[in-house]
């Protein structure tokens, strides 16, 4: 690689001539392809933003000028150009580079990311701080067209246009979210493209950008003639005039010199925010891009020549996600009140199947989790039974809406929280470890977690037929592999399942994904002569207080296990119950779960093992605790004898 091997930082890049940059971009693209073909990653998203990354680091004096990436999944070129090329092959692996952006990973990662639509707010904050500090640097946010439609980004646009501080927004418009982009803003951006190409503005911009003063005389002229020609509003009209943004574009987002020139023009705008509208192709350069858009937003390892996925020959059971989608279709077949919803994750949640089968009763609202929750509340007010399938981590966005709009009004909305627990490679921004804690503290909501996919089906039916808010959490990836041919049946709310009864001194009460490891641990303990009762808790709210209090009366040790943060989690709920019933004196309670730490990225099995959340960990915890308890008891007895 002629140029890339010499580039260790953006300063090296800036030594090059502008006419060499396209070749740099080609080399970066090749590097991403080669690396991702081996390890997978957000391949398509990053391939689409290669030229934008090269142009930004060339046009701006990074890191003094601040680049703020939205989501950060598309930033592999940025990582390559900022000294992390040699570690790109460690992406998303334990102790390796993050798949997103982290301030502690590089000084060029000015703002941590992973969730969408944050860049404009953060960049605006940095721009204001710059002004107050009397600095002169530029701040540029890079945001995708779908993330721009997210509520936070809209709120930031609103404030930016009002504040009139210097801010550059580079819009990476590829017409795609993970699925095709949805919504009126997408339609609007498309109208601009159509209208501008109708007026041959693209060529005009290309030819005259060099001589454009400010936002560009010819652009202004062209926009004006466009306005004259078509009464409908277009971006220059709406954004420049109404929201207070200048507009430069559109530019070919794969033509590095053109983007650099557009950014140079943007830098000259002194009196407020400016948008540079770049058109890109997601997955540019990916072999066989056309086949399936989900396949190249993010990929596993693939064949570099054909782009075909290299699948490991695993006979893993169907994923919870798949079974969720299938069960939704089944339930919607017989209950026409049920409607389904995803927030820009149709394939990730299984709602893609539902959208296909029931297009009138399923919605992709885009990256708009807050809106999604209240939209469901509205539908529930009128008698529909909405099921919102939103990853546990992204539902955090809708916290107040869940409380204020759903729970307070006791509405029949079901939240299907996929990716609850440790998700693995995507790391701290994506682990779903908080949902128990953030949902448990408010009245009316029913919270449940299945031990396997058959129970998930039963819980789905239970939730939609329950007249009030309910949430089901289930993990990423394959189910346990149990038979799911039975029709779903309702289960009694607040009733746990006693899976293994014993006369021994130990009870393990496990929640959701931890039930099977708990059962296996009990089998191992039995071999050591320790009899353990195992309970599938099923519900954290309401708890099966009758069963838990009965166990507290008969057992010496209760171990609770959950794949979630301990603070405010399932074990805390059990402790609260025992405390409220003055039962804590008679029984020792050990809570197993995720400690108060940022959990890094990496293989989920490895991470779960690290926190003892597997068969081995549960077995060891029970053994060790009993040993400590026995020693203490012995100590107490000895003292008694001495005294
Ligand atoms: C709050 C939130 N919701 C959903 C996601 C999942 N997600 C990651 S990337 C992405 C699509 C982003 O589309 P766009 O902004 O157009 O960027 P592109 O991937 O097309 O470059 C989505 C929905 C997320 N990261 N954050």
Description:
By secondary structure, the protein is α/β, with parallel strands linked by helices. It folds into three domains: 61-70 and 95-288, Thiamin diphosphate (ThDP)-binding fold, Pyr/PP domains (Rossmann fold, 3-Layer(aba) Sandwich), CATH 3.40.50.970; 320-473, 3-Layer(aba) Sandwich (Rossmann fold), CATH 3.40.50; 497-635, 3-Layer(aba) Sandwich (Rossmann fold). It contains 27 helices and 17 strands. The chain has a seven-stranded mixed β-sheet with strand order 7-6-8-9-11-10-15, with helices on both faces. A five-stranded parallel β-sheet has the order 1-2-3-5-4, with helices on both faces. Helix 13 links the parallel strand 4 (246-252) and strand 5 (273-279). Helix 2 packs across helix 4. The chain is globular. Mean pLDDT is 91; it is low at 198-216 and 218-234. Bound molecules: thiamine diphosphate.
Instruction: Write the CATH fold name of the largest domain.
Output: Rossmann fold
Strand order of the largest sheet: 7-6-8-9-11-10-15
> What does the main sheet amount to?
7 strands, mixed
Number of domains: 3
Give a brief outline of the structure.
With 643 residues, the protein is α/β, with parallel strands linked by helices. The chain contains 27 helices and 17 strands. Thiamine diphosphate binds at residues 45, 48, 71, 73-74, 115-116, 144-147, 172, 174, 176-178, 282, 344, 367, 369, 394, 397.
């Amino acid at each position: 690689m002629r140029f890339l091997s010499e580039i260790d930082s953006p300063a090296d890049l800036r030594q090059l001539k502008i006419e060499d940059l396209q070749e740099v971009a080609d080399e970066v693209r090749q590097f991403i392809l080669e690396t991702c073909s081996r390890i997978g990653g957000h391949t398509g998203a990053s391939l689409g933003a290669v030229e934008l990354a090269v142009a930004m680091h060339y046009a701006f004096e990074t890191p003094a000028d601040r680049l703020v990436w939205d989501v950060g999944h598309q930033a592999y070129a940025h990582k390559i150009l900022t000294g992390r090329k040699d570690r790109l092959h460690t992406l998303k692996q334990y102790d390796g580079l993050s798949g997103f952006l982290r301030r502690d990973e590089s000084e060029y990662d000015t703002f941590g990311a992973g969730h969408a639509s944050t860049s404009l707010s953060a960049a605006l904050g940095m721009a204001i701080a710059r002004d107050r500090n009397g600095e002169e640097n530029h701040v540029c946010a890079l945001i995708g067209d779908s993330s721009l439609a997210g509520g936070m980004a809209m709120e930031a646009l609103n404030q930016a246009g009002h504040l009139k501080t210097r801010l550059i927004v580079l819009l990476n418009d590829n017409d795609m979210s993970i699925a095709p982009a949805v919504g009126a803003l997408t339609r609007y951006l498309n109208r601009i493209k159509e209208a501008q190409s109708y007026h041959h503005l693209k060529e005009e911009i290309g030819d005259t950008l060099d001589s454009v003063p400010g936002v560009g005389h010819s652009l202004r002229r062209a926009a004006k003639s466009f306005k004259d020609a078509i009464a409908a509003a277009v971006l220059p009209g709406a954004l420049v005039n109404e929201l207070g943004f200048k507009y430069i574009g559109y530019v070919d987002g794969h033509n590095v010199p053109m983007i650099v020139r557009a950014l140079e023009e943007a830098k000259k705008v002194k009196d407020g925010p400016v948008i540079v509208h770049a058109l890109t192709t997601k997955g540019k350069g990916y072999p066989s891009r056309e086949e399936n858009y989900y396949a190249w937003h993010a990929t596993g390892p693939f064949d570099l020549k054909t782009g075909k996925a290299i699948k490991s020959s695993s006979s893993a059971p169907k994923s919870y996600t798949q079974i969720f989608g299938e069960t939704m279709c089944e339930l919607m077949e017989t209950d026409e009140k049920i409607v389904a919803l995803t927030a820009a994750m149709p394939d990730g949640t299984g709602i893609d199947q539902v959208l296909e089968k029931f297009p009138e009763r399923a919605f992709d609202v885009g990256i708009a989790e807050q809106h999604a929750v209240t939209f469901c509340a509205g539908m529930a007010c009128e008698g529909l039974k909405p099921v919102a399938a939103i990853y546990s981590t992204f539902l955090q966005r809708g916290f107040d809406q869940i409380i204020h709009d759903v729970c307070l009004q006791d509405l029949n909305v079901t939240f299907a929280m996929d990716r609850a627990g440790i998700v693995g490679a995507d790391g701290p921004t994506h682990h779903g470890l908080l949902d128990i804690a953030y949902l448990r503290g408010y009245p009316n909501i029913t919270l449940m977690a299945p031990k396997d996919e058959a129970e998930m089906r039963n819980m789905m039916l239970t939730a939609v037929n329950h007249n009030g808010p309910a949430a089901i959490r289930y993990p990423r990836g394959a189910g346990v592999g149990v038979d799911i041919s039975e029709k779903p049946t309702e289960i009694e709310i607040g009733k746990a399942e006693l899976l293994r009864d014993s006369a021994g001194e130990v009870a393990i009460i496990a929640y959701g994904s931890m039930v099977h490891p708990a059962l296996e641990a009990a089998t191992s303990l039995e071999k050591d002569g320790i009899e353990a009762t195992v309970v599938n808790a099923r519900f954290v709210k309401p708890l099966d207080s009758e069963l838990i209090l009965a166990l507290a009366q008969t057992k010496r040790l209760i171990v609770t296990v959950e794949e979630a943060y301990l603070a405010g989690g399932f074990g805390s709920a059990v402790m609260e119950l025992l405390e409220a019933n003055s039962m804590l004196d008679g029984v020792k309670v050990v809570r197993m779960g995720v400690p108060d730490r940022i959990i890094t990225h990496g293989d989920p099995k490895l991470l779960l093992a690290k926190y003892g959340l597997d068969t081995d960990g549960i077995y060891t915890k029970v053994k060790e605790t009993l040993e400590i308890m026995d020693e203490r008891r012995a100590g107490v007895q000895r003292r008694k004898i001495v005294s």
